[in-house]
């Protein structure tokens, strides 16, 4: 399990026939600084790039759209 502050949680599950990666995101609201939002998007992209291509990946959460 990986945690980034209180906004991002990643849980890896060993499964058959492929592993599963669950990514839970809680994005800042529109009242937050744009820099904070942009930084979190960058972190999410970096973390997703680290996931093996054969794993099933579920990205979910409160995106505050």
Lateral strand order in the biggest sheet: 1-2-3-4
Would you tell me the overall average pLDDT?
90
> What share of the residues lie within helices?
25-40%
**End-to-end C-alpha gap:** 26 Å
The number of helical segments is 1
The chain-level structural class is alpha+beta
CA radius of gyration is 13 Å
Question: What does this molecule look like?
Answer:
The protein is an alpha+beta fold. It is 26% helix and 35% strand. It has one helix at residues 34-50, and strands at residues 2-4, 8-13, 20-26, 56-62. It has a 4-stranded mixed β-sheet, with no helix packed on it. It is elongated and about 45 Å long. The model has no long low-confidence stretch (mean pLDDT 90).
Provide the descriptors you would attach to this structure in a database record.
alpha+beta; 65 residues; four-stranded mixed beta sheet
